[in-house]
Specification:
- The chain has helices at about 1-15, 40-60, 70-75, 75-80, 100-105, 160, 170-180, 210-220, 240-250, 265-270, 275-290, 310-320, 350-370, 435, and strands spanning about 30-35, 65-70, 90, 115, 140-145, 145, 165, 185-190, 225-230, 255, 295-300, 325-330, 380-385, 395-400, 405, 415-425, 430.
- With about 450 residues, the chain is α/β, with parallel strands linked by helices.
- It has a 5-stranded mixed β-barrel. A 4-stranded parallel β-sheet has the order 1-2-3-4, with helices on both faces. A 3-stranded parallel β-sheet has the order 5-8-9, covered by helices on one side.
- Helix 8 links the parallel strand 8 and strand 9.
- Helix 7 (about 170-180) packs parallel to helix 8 and helix 12 runs parallel beside helix 13.
- The model has no long low-confidence stretch (mean pLDDT about 95).
Length: about 450
C-alpha cells in the first residue's frame, strides 16, 4: 500500500512538470514515505532523514525534505521539532496535496507545512499511475479501493494512522482498472487495509454476494485484463461467496495471503482478531477444496504480550498443519497508544527473537519442500520484466504467486507463457520455456 501511495504521489508530481531524479544525490525534493507498523520502520525513517539532512544542508541547502505517510500522520509537528531541517510533513489523507504544498515551499510562500488533518473523500484521490515510467513496459498495477481500518487489533497502529474505513465506488474503481488495461496492464492487484471489508457500510449484499465479491465480478468483466489479485484480507472476510469466486472467476488468481497472526485462541482473543484457530483452518480447507493448487501465505506475530511457550507451540503446529507456502514473521513491536503496548506479561526481547527464529526455520523448511514439488512440472507465468538481481534473466509469477526466473529477453515482457520448472531456489523457481516448446 505504501508503494502504491508513493507511486501515485510521484505520478502527480510528474504531471505537474517534475521529473524523477535518478538518485537522491541530485534531487531537488526528497520525500520519505513512512510506515508505523513496527518501531524499527520508524527508527529507520528517522535515521535516513537525519543522514539526508546532514548532507543536503551542508552541500545543497535549497533541497526540500519531507515526510509522508503513517509516521508523518501519527507524529505530525513532533517530526519538525525533532528534525528542524524537514520542510514538509504530510499525512495519509493528504497525499494529493503534495504538489501544491511543494509549490508553496519552493516559491517561498511558506517555509514549513504540516498537514495531518482528516479529509473527506480522500479514498478516491490515489488514482495516478507511473507504470514504471512507460505504459508500454508495465504489465501489473496496484489499485487502491479503500482507505482505513475498523478492526482495531490491539497490536496495530494502522486505524489511528489511516483512519476509519472509507471505500470508493465500484464504477470508479472499474474505470481506473479499465484505463490501466488500455495502457497495457494485464494484472491488477486490488489494495485495502482490510480489502475484504470493501463497501461494507455503503454497498448492500446482492444475491448472496458481498460488496467485495461484487467488485471482483465487475473487474473480471474488463476485456483484456488477464489476472486479478488482492491484498490484504482478513479471515473474517472469507465468506462462502468469496471462496466460491475462486472457483467461478478464471481471472482471479489462485493465491491468498491471509494473516493468521497466531495459532492460539487465547492470544487471538487478546489480539482482538475475531476468529478462532478452528475457524481459520476451516477457511483454508474450503479454499483448497475450491482450488487445490492455491498458494497460501500469511502473517504471524511472535512474542505478543502474554504468549506462553505452549501458545507459541500451537502457532508452530498450525504452520505445520496448514503448510503455508511462505509467511511473513514479525517479532511483536510495541506501538504507542495501542492496547497491547500496556498489556501485562510483555515477552522479553530475547524470547521474541528465539521464537522468531524457530518459526522462520519451520516456514523455510516447509516452503522449500513445497517449492521443490514444482520441479519437473509445467506452469504458466506472466512475465513482468528483468530479474532484480540478474538483468540477464527475466522474471514472472505463477498464478499461485511464485516467482519464476528464466533466460529470456525484453520481448517476453507482458507475455503469458508456459515454462517447465527445472530447479528451485530459496522461494524462487527456475524454468525453461524451450523444454515446453519442444
Amino acid at each position: 500500500m505504501n508503494e502504491r501511495d508513493s507511486e501515485a504521489v510521484a505520478a502527480q508530481l510528474v504531471a505537474k512538470g517534475y521529473s524523477l531524479a535518478k538518485t537522491e544525490n541530485v534531487a531537488d525534493v526528497i520525500l520519505l514515505n513512512t510506515c508505523s507498523v513496527r518501531d524499527f520502520a520508524e527508527q529507520k525513517a528517522i535515521g535516513k532523514m537525519q543522514n539526508l539532512a546532514a548532507d543536503v544542508r551542508k552541500n545543497r541547502p535549497d533541497v526540500v525534505l519531507g515526510f509522508m505517510g503513517c509516521m508523518a500522520q501519527s507524529r505530525g509537528q513532533e517530526l519538525l521539532d525533532k528534525l528542524p531541517d524537514v520542510d514538509l510533513v504530510i499525512g495519509t489523507q493528504k497525499f494529493h496535496h503534495t504538489a501544491d504544498y511543494l509549490e508553496e515551499i519552493l516559491s517561498g510562500a511558506r517555509k514549513k507545512i504540516v498537514d495531518v488533518a482528516a479529509e473527506e473523500k480522500s479514498e478516491a484521490t490515489i488514482r495516478e499511475h507511473l507504470l514504471n515510467g512507460s505504459a508500454k513496459t508495465s504489465v501489473s498495477a496496484f489499485v487502491s479501493i479503500m482507505q482505513g481500518c475498523n478492526q482495531y487489533c490491539t497490536f496495530c497502529i494502522v486505524p489511528y494512522t489511516r483512519g476509519e474505513e472509507r471505500s470508493r465506488t465500484i464504477p470508479d474503481i472499474v474505470a481506473e482498472c479499465r484505463e490501466l488495461v488500455s495502457r497495457g496492464v494485464k494484472e491488477i492487484t486490488l489494495l485495502g487495509q482490510i480489502v475484504t471489508s470493501f463497501g461494507k457500510r455503503d454497498i448492500p449484499n446482492q444475491n448472496g454476494k458481498s460488496a467485495f465479491v461484487q467488485l471482483l465480478d465487475a473487474v473480471h468483466e474488463i476485456e483484456g485484463l488477464e489476472r486479478i489479485r488482492f491484498t490484504s484480507p482478513h479471515p473474517k472476510g472469507y465468506g462462502d461467496d468469496l471462496i466460491e469466486a475462486y472457483a467461478r472467476l478464471p481471472k482471479l488468481c489462485e493465491s491468498a495471503h491471509i494473516p493468521v497472526q497466531s495459532g492460539n485462541d487465547r492470544v487471538l482473543k487478546l489480539m482482538h482478531r475475531g476468529y478462532t484457530r478452528e475457524k481459520f483452518l476451516g477457511i483454508i480447507k474450503k479454499l483448497r477444496a475450491a482450488k487445490p493448487e492455491i498458494g497460501i501465505t500469511t502473517d504471524i506475530i511472535v512474542g505478543f504480550p502474554g504468549e506462553t511457550e505452549q501458545d507459541f507451540e500451537e502457532t508452530l503446529a498450525l504452520a505445520h498443519e496448514v503448510e503455508f507456502d511462505n509467511a511473513y514473521i514479525f517479532k511483536y513491536s510495541q506501538r504507542r497508544d495501542t492496547p497491547a503496548a500496556t498489556m501485562p506479561d510483555q515477552v522479553p526481547q530475547k524470547i521474541r527473537e528465539e521464537r522468531n527464529q524457530r518459526l522462520l526455520e519451520t516456514v523455510n523448511e516447509i516452503g522449500a519442500r513445497k517449492y521443490e514439488n514444482f520441479i519437473g512440472r509445467q506452469t504458466q507465468i506472466l512475465v513482468e520484466g528483468p530479474s532484480k538481481k540478474n538483468a540477464a534473466r527475466m522474471s514472472g509469477r505463477t498464478r499461485c504467486n511464485k516467482i519464476v526466473l528464466f533466460d529470456g529477453t525484453a520481448r517476453h515482457r507482458g507475455q503469458i507463457m508456459d515454462l517447465k520448472i527445472t530447479r528451485a531456489g530459496s522461494f524462487t523457481l527456475y524454468g525453461d520455456p524451450a523444454i515446453v516448446n519442444l
